[in-house]
Design brief:
- The chain is an alpha/beta fold.
- The chain is built from 9 helices and 16 strands.
- α5 packs parallel to α6.
Amino acid sequence: MSTNIIETSGLGKRYGSTCALRECTLAIPAGHVAALVGPNGAGKTTLLNLAVGLAEPAAGAVTVLGGLPAGSPAALDGIAFVAQDTPLYKNLPAADMLHLTGNLNHRFDRPYAQARLGELGIPLTRKAGKLSGGQQAQLALTLGLARRPRLLVLDEPMAMLDPLARHEFMATVLTAAADDGVSVVLSSHVLAELERVADYLILLSQGRVQVAGEVDGLLATHRLLTGPAAETDRYTDRPVVHARRAEAQAHLLVRASADDPVPPGWEAHPVGLEELAMAYLREPGAAALPGPARGWALPPETGEPSEVTR
């Protein structure tokens, strides 16, 4: 059986009167580059903070690396975390950052870190605060990878990067995943970038897991149907995730495979990761989950399914 790199059960977290996570149950298998997607306030950062031990749950439980309690010494030893603001001591040169991180982590691979910064053209003598945004992100990533983690957690690491810096950053992440077997959980709003690198998708909405599964499997079980707008309401053979209607034509993202029959007058097209994620983001009442929960879910506020999932 494959190891779950992060597993949660009924996980909940509140900040005052705000419920950041509720009944969050999830299992992310090891060996994937998992994309964590959701609108602002969906609970992405809260989930990651709970997984790496930076916060305590109000309800439920979270384990990592095959069952270790989140935040335990054994768990922390196998996880590297790069937060959104690439936390670095801005007044310390890169060399001092390597020295400090090496003293705090017994498995720190200093030769790897020095070699990688050299390949990237990042001077060891330059203060972190004087580096470009892309260089700071690469320095933070290098510090994390040099710890030789089993799990690399990235919370919006590309938010402030230009397209070239994003591409180079993700190339490093993919190399670590492929060559060193590092599992990756990556939170980002840059769906186009995630489509290029992710092979597992978790979509959070309103503090709950809305979509979870391997990307290939999710894409294989969804299709985009294009046909006459007047016949939209007649299409009931497959659950409709999201519908876009114009005066003459409608576009339906439905749960269906390539072998499922297409209604007369309609055309079926494959779906990309960005298109799939956007459809579910527009319909908080729809869900695609493994096991018996598969189907549509009820928004916690209304207790009613959304219009297109009835």
